[in-house]
Amino acid sequence: PNAPPRLAAALRGASRYADAAAALERALAHTPTLSDEHAAMRRERDELLVLADRQGRHEELNVQYAPGFQSRKRMEEVYTRMPEARGTLGPDCTADHACVNAIIADTRGVFSTQQHGWAHARKAHFATTAGRWEEALQQFTIGATDFAHPECMYNIALLAEHGRGTAVDLPRALLWAERAVACEPYSEHEMPGKPLRLRALGIAQAHTMLAHFYREGIVVRRDWRAALAHWQRGSDLGCSSATNMLALCYRDGSYGVALDLARARDLFRLAALALSPCTEAMSNLAVLYYRLGDCDAALRWAEGAEAHGDGGATTLAAAMRAAVREHGERVAAVRTTTSSASRSEADCLRRMLVAIRPTTSTPERSTPTPSLGELETLASTSAYVARLRDVKRRFVECAEAFAEGDSARALHVAASALREPDADLVLGAGEGDRTIQATLFMLANGVRRRQSTPSCDAAVVGELLHRESVVRHVAYLREMVRQYPRERYFATRLGAMLQFESPECNSEEGVAQLTRALAMCSGDGDADPPKCDLLYLLAAANMQLDGAVHHQRARRFFERFLVPATPDGHRKVPMAHYQLAMLRIRDAGADARDSVEPQDRSAAEADMRRHYEAGVAAEARLPPFLRTDGGPLEWSPQREMLATLFDARGDGAAAAAAAAAAAAAA
Description:
The radius of gyration is 29 Å and the shape is globular. The protein is mainly α and 666 residues long. 38% of the residues are buried. The longest helix is centred in the first third of the chain and has 54 residues.
């Protein structure tokens, strides 16, 4: 019984994926259907079928693709032969000069292969500036297939991804990006005097594209390790965008790297000071300095990004100028009051946080967090905003109780507020919010100093001290789930954290924890706010898992979520519609492979457009502090991808309907 799986493993190691899948198919017939071994074999068989399909598509195009690579290899061989021939013949030899001249001529002919590739790339770039996308695609294809030019390969992938000169074709984009990264950078003999960044042009950018595909799970299985490896390789080859993404990993401690702000700062600077600078890296560096308290450095980099034409940096630079101005005023105020009478520990820490830390809105938010009075005014717009107002009231009550010396009541009220979904949304950078945050910090510190096992409320507040590191945060939540198995809050938080791209990422365990939390909810329907929030989290978690079964579950959970959340005015309603549209895209791709009737595919596309328009309209109905109004640069990736897809298809009706719905909702 062990022979077929062992045979499949050997065939997989030899890259014979179709034969390996057939061997596992035979093994499945002799394995109990409900066993874990049967499920594992079935998953491996599906993966092998995908690899076999990709291998087949590669082989179909190798007929045109091989000559360019052969000429590249031949060029290297000829160049190594030339000095050997010269050394053998000697300077005075005349009999075999014809041989040497033939080698030199051969070398020049092969070098022209690389030059021809650049020529076609230049023609294609001229065509793109004039908007002649079909001509550009034709020139890039000639450079890629005939001359194995990596920049041409990358640009074919780029055009296929965005639907320029051809229909949007993500599998084709993946194929050409993989071919580009399979190329070696041109050697110094081929491009003398050129830095590695120019010799690897196209290869480094293709690594960045593949990292995006693996991070988002586009066409390929979601794999944060592969994404990190491609960012690292792209950064090594001189791509400033890849360096910027790698710096974000170090800044956030995500994708399997340890939190290292110094390393993140150095990488942001490297990307910002490159010959082709990444303006996003400049903005990220500004935000990093802002968080570290160096407002002057933050302002310099924000103004640098603005000077390089980054549209989003204008708002960031304005926020930094306000931060520098207000920071100076606050520090001056602190210096004039330091000689006053001694204060209590709570009052001293509150004043220090309010005075020294900048109180302008965080640059990452397009609008500041509303105060309690503003939330009182907005509460009539939806039940969701009314709940946020109630959460803000509890935080204010917590700060007042702590100021009065009643720490026990402050701890209980803080825990009840933190248990509510989206409680973090009501805490901004205003003076009152800084006081609340200082109170929560001191309550959490008090929990940490206790020697005994904390109560459930204390454990909820103590979680605040573990949020800076994903690894520590997950470890703390696991321990709390063990100590308080009937507390829904910890199971929900752990299930959500396990979906992140980190060493702790485990989507299957995350779904299990969220399912446990859902079972703890009351049976009064889906209108209960924590239960409604759990439905969305379960839908998003199932989307990260491969397989039609999980995608069907995701669709059902999204649809259940929308029933109570749409009239409730929930902030995640737009994203739920966008995700349902993305699921319809996957269904449409499966239908195309399975030769489904055209009318069924058109119905799927109509459903996709309906969800897209509903999401845009729902986003326009949200209060300003819950939405982003900065245009495509601040849209969610799902909305941006859907908008790009409709633009690529020339679907003016869908775009017009979405715009009309948004205008009507506003």
